[in-house]
Design brief:
Number of helices: 16
Strand order of the largest sheet: 7-6-5-8-9-10
Helix content: 40-55%
CATH topology of one domain: Rossmann fold
CATH class of one domain: Alpha Beta
Length: about 400
């Protein structure tokens, strides 16, 4: 979400200074985009670096994400635990960490120091909790204008709708989300319906050309191509049982592989969530099955497909914005547990179960998207950039 807005800000305000803090897995993505982002490791000196080093080494998880450096992992854990101790004392902080690990973090003291260090005119964050939420609260306390970009559907029971502090400006994907937040008590003057800037490249001719080139390179001209954008399912703990969490999406994948095998004019793109894809086995090689990795932009995979299949991933909404028919596994364990249903939101066809998925795909191929109104040909980032500049008094 942030990268296209940064680009738009530079176009609208040449010479603008943008300090990007990109945390954990976002750091690699920001670096790959040509940015020079800050992380916890680079800002650790603003906390208590000796304490952070000691406790980061003690508490950091043994299993780590392949795109996050050990240095950043240790700093992230160490600084957040330092902040937790400042808030609650050592004994309670240790108990909270033992129970919740990173979900106990709320580095408010740290971000007060970060903002005092950078002295920004505006603080921009997304919907993410913990670090970003703490940064917004710190900015609000310090009288710094704030903007929060929300990326998806929000319901009244979502944690974002229960926050004690809201940014001066909140951008949302559509009118439905605007009304939800207003019903939850967010003043109407704070809300702007803009869309999600992370979706902007779906309308980029260069991205569309990449997708067409992918199909041609794979020899899939004239074939019906399904994108399966899956993620871990059926888990509630911070350390999920991977055999259980991968079971449902792998069953969906197996059904889609059978669908491909049944007709030489069918093909499949498999893309698991980039933070989770290392938990999924690659499966058997097949000339009409392509594994999309984090090295490929998700929009290339979406645009190369004819139908997008999801559980409840944001990729479902992105598929609809791209004008693709979407099929949602509305009875996946995770979708049922959090009561999320893309069909009820008017975004997707519902697959009642895994066995019924092929029939719903064929219907989607025949009838096309159920949400033509969601297709968005114009970029969103310039609109949000204008809001940010207005908050800074520079629009």
């Amino acid at each position: 979400m942030v990268l296209p807005v940064m680009k738009a800000l530079r176009e609208q305000q040449p010479g603008i200074v943008l300090e990007l803090i990109a945390l954990t897995t976002a750091h690699a993505a920001a670096t790959a985009a040509g940015e020079k982002p800050w992380g916890y490791a680079g800002l650790k000196h603003l906390a208590d670096p000796a304490f952070a080093d000691e406790w980061g080494s003690r508490l950091a998880p043994k299993q780590r994400h392949p795109t996050v450096t050990d240095e950043e992992t240790l700093a992230y854990v160490g600084v957040n635990f330092w902040d937790l101790v400042l808030q609650h004392g050592l004994d309670k902080a240790q108990a909270m960490h033992a129970q919740k690990e990173r979900f106990a973090y709320y580095p408010l003291h740290f971000f007060r120091r970060v903002l005092a260090h950078f002295r920004p005119d505006v603080v921009v964050a997304t919907v993410s909790p913990r670090s970003e939420e703490a940064a917004l609260q710190a900015a609000i306390e310090m009288g710094i204008p704030t903007l929060s970009m929300t990326d998806f559907y929000l319901r009244a029971f979502d944690p974002y709708c229960k926050r004690a502090h809201y940014a001066d400006r909140i951008t949302v994907v559509n009118e439905m989300v605007r009304q939800t937040l207003q019903d939850c008590g967010v003043p109407a003057r704070k809300l702007r319906v803009t869309g999600n800037p992370a979706f902007d490249s779906l309308a980029d001719p260069a991205r569309q050309a990449q997708a067409q080139a992918l199909r041609e390179r794979l020899g899939w001209k004239g074939k019906s191509v399904v994108l399966w954008a899956g993620h871990l399912d059926d888990y509630t703990s911070i350390t999920p049982d991977l055999a259980s969490a991968t079971a449902y999406p792998l069953q969906v994948e197996a059904e889609l592989r059978r669908w491909v095998d049944a007709d030489a004019n069918r093909a499949l793109i498999i893309r698991y969530h980039p933070n989770e894809m290392h938990h999924f086995p690659p499966g058997p090689a097949h000339p009409r099955v392509f594994l999309s990795t984090r090295a490929q932009h998700v929009h290339e995979a979406i645009l190369a497909s004819d139908v997008v299949v999801v559980q409840m991933s944001t990729v479902g909404l992105e598929g609809a914005v791209a004008g693709k028919p979407v099929v949602a596994m509305v009875n996946s364990p995770h979708s049922l547990r959090v009561d999320f249903n893309y069909e009820k939101l008017g975004v997707a066809y519902a697959a009642p179960d895994i066995a019924g998925l092929p029939a719903v795909i064929e219907r989607a191929l025949r009838e096309g998207t159920v949400a033509p109104d969601l297709a968005r040909p114009q970029p969103v980032a310039p609109i949000i950039a204008q809001e940010i500049l207005a908050l800074a008094g520079r629009a």
